[in-house]
Amino acid sequence: MDRIVVTGMGVISAIGNTVAENRASLVKGTCGLGSLEMFPSKFSTLLPVGEIKITTEALKEKLEAHERGITRTTLLALHAFKESLADSQLTSEQVSSSDTALIGASTVGGMCLTDEMHRDAQKDTPGSEYIPSYDYASISMYLQQRYSMNGPVNTINTACSSSANAIMFGARLIRNGRAKRAIVGGVDSLAKFTINGFNALHILSPDNCTPFDEDRKGLNLGEGAAFIVLEKEEDVAGKKIYASLSGYSNANDSFHASSLSDNGDGPYKAMSDALALAKLDPSQIDFINAHGTATENNDKVESIAMLRLFGKAPAFASTKANIGHTLGAAGAIEALYCILNLAEQELYPGIHFKKPITGLGLEPVQAYKKIALEHIMSNSFGFGGNCSSLIFSKA
Amino acid sequence: MFYIHQTSCISPQHTFGDADINKLAEPAEKRLQAIEPSYDAIPPGVLRRMGKVVRMGVGAAMPLLQNHPKPDGIIIGTATGGKDDCVKFLNQIIEYDEGMLTPINFVQSTPNAVASQIGLLTKNHGYNVSHLHLGLAFEFAMTDADMMLNENPLNNYLLGAVDDICTHHYYFEDKTGWYKKEDVSNKTLYETNPAATGSPGSIAGEAAAMFWVNGMEAGAVAKLQAVDTLHQADESIVKEKLQDFIEKYLPAGEKIDLLLTGENGDNRLLKYYSSCESVIKEDVTIARFKHMCGEYPTATAMGLWLCCDILQHQHIPDHMIKNAVVKSRYKNILMYNNYKGVQHSFILVSGQ
How confident is the model at residue B308 (pLDDT cuts 50, 70, 90)? Predict the structure, then answer.
């Protein structure tokens, strides 16, 4: 089977507006968590978030995106999308060709405008310019129109593992001969909607989150976007290749709507199915970018599933301590960080960790390391039991 | 290409259980609302907590899941899945000013709620995904199933789509001019089509349609030959794409027997349907279905359910017919739909 390779990347998050800025922050172990500043909320100083410190207006100016109804979510997506196209050196003809796919993912979409949406949802109010933007599909549709794309354009959802599945669907379109290349990724922006939702579940930490730590208090929300360009290796002669996508899977925990089963059946199946597709033994995985939300439930169950599958867990860490949980963007941003690990042959320090979880004893990577890396796994789990794992391999 | 073996549909018409599509149910309060069954297969405690879209989706899926071993995956298209709970949670946020809120609506607001509830209720650990791409959400669910069966030829999948008329979605669509301002009967919906004398908008609608699909020809109700999509506002490009689609996928020596279109009474969209009708020969029956289920993003799933029904019974109700041509047998059905004039889909379904 032809290898599917990554030829371009774009990302924006709380620790940088570009791939280069994100890498520099990861190397230094920068924490991008802090107070919420871009919109008013009762929780703005109480709950740390991974916010991108550029106003929506400034994003509009920078990206020359002044269409009516455009939202912060779409702007963040555009920012990362644009960088990924430039990085892969795709021509505008290639981008608009009928064999170029765009697969996006988001769990917030235009709901970042929580108050506006509430007003528009009432019977007797006049409709605002944002109504068409509340839909999850509006982001991919904006990019499709802006870049006159004629290939398959889709929007996928599996809750917090959504963009891992966007990557997977794009790769499968290529494998099945339905696209020659696929630009795949995800986006979410911070919203009063998600802050209050996760707060009502009592899984938001009042402090910076501490993945895999015994005293973890929950997750921090973040915002961001990432897109990567997937192509067939045989089509990209002479082009820079960052890594190949060698395995992927989607499994369901089917245990509970918002928490994982004690044994981590879904995470276990996701990781083992991805290994099977990549034709790899567990021992060949050099590092795992864990889902690692720092909630009581996730980190314990993910650890148990890793121990069950790997015996002794490989090196692992969660970059959610740097950028927060970016929900629909998490799978794509973390996949991109794995691709950076491979391309640069380096591991980044997992931050905020102090004490291993009692009885499990797993410690994430805590120092920057130059190291030979062949295969890396990225885990993403979501509400509804939607568990996905991706495996990237050295170019 | 894949085969459809069993179908199930909860819609504004009599499609669930003992189906009778000859009798046309009419809209009430400008909405074509689903005739919901009693959902005996869903545990009452679970049913009570389900929003309508989840209830309809799970309810339509259940008959298929009870008659077969576990499917290898659950692939759902939905544009409104979870949104009713979204707005309920939004209302809580505003009403209680970010105070103490109950999380149930938030948890159920994720758009993967239908697929994940089916997975949870049937303890299914397999592939589980939701496609949300508005007017093409079901088309991409079909594409996904098609690729899954290409990758795993021996597998079985539950494929389907569901959308409902939740209150706020109705207001959004109404405020942006996608529903007719005047009261209109579904019996006269297409009279409002003409660009000059007609009116914009359609009737709000909803339905859930589910399909048991695999790669086995024996015993199949229908064969899904191909599905393709396009984002485009220019009807001449849509027409070209349809011509290419027929050329590429209609088996050599065969012809289209029926063109089923998503015409919806919106006078801004008739030009697309007219262009597509002009592609096919005069001896092809043309039929329509939006007067049965109204307009909603995944209406082509109801369309596909109707294709299967027509192929099985070799009968098209009179109320669906636009252009009647006497046929000895319906074998190849071409379906063309467009959503809001920018998302187009082309589907070819064949009987045995």
Answer: very high
The number of folded domains in chain A is 2
Residue B249 pLDDT > 90: yes
B59-107 confidence digits (pLDDT tens): 999 999 998 889 999 999 999 888 888 889 999 999 999 998 999 999 8
Chain A neighbors of B1, CB-CB under 8 A: none
Q: Does B106 touch chain A (CB under 8 A)?
A: yes
Pinpoint the alpha helices (H) of B162-280: 167-175, 235-249, 270-277
Distance CA B287, CA A172 (A): 35
Please check whether residues A308 and A388 belong to one and the same domain: yes
By residue range, what is the domain housing residue B334?
Answer: 223-350
Residue A173 CA: distances (Å) to CA of A186, A389, B249: 17, 18, 18
Chain A, 329-368: which have a CB under 8 Å from a chain B CB?
none
Measured between beta carbons, the chain A residues lying within 8 angstroms of B87 are 117-118, 121
A123 SS3 class: coil
The distance from CA B186 to its chain's CA centroid, rounded to whole angstroms, is 18
Q: Measure CB to CB from residue B176 to each of A115, A131, A145 and give the nearest one.
A: A131
Same domain as A205, residue A252: no
- Calculate how close chain A gets to B109, using CA atoms only, in Å: 10
Band (A343; pLDDT cuts 50, 70, 90): very high
The answer to whether B96 faces chain A, any CB pair under 8 Å, is no
> Domain count of chain B?
2
Residues B201 and B247 in one domain: no
Contact between chains at B89 and A196 (C-beta distance less than 8 A): yes
